User: What shape does this take?
Amino acid sequence: MNYTLLLTALILLGNTPLQGKEKKIKEKVSEVVKSKEGLQLLHNTFSAGCFNKTWSYLDKTELTDEEKEDMIATSYASLWHWKQRDDCKAENLSVAYWQLGRVHCVAADLSTAKSFGDKCLKVSLKGKLSPFYIGYAYELLLNAAVLNKDKNEATKYLKLANEQLELIKDKNNKKYLSDDINKLKKSLN
Assistant: This one.
């Protein structure tokens, strides 16, 4: 039995009886959350699930205020669950900080976006991550600067992002970053 799915269903259903099996389900869920393996399974599920839910908001062209609030909440939840995982690495934190920064760009909270850009860059440099991650840290800082209409900062981060772009070997990763940089570059002109 997949207890993670069971727990998720139970959380979503609240205290709704599940055809007389509520007590047994609660006992099983209690067993899962008391074990280290069970907690890790939950963190694995929720870190990815919240990350993907955040992307579903980022993929939309327009968001209501409530959707923006939910997008921010799911992105923070994803980061928190990643930080609880035994297998969390600098790459995971870099991506989580980048996503939080992007979310705050979308929500027009530019000082927080820049703060997460700085965190993304710091963890990427400290972890000696590949140019792809460092380039995306600069892309996030570029995004915040463009939205803040700070041409000097934007020009600086555009140059730094492009320097990292040139170092990326993987063609797909290079294209992703190039496309995102070029979208922002158009906003500068």
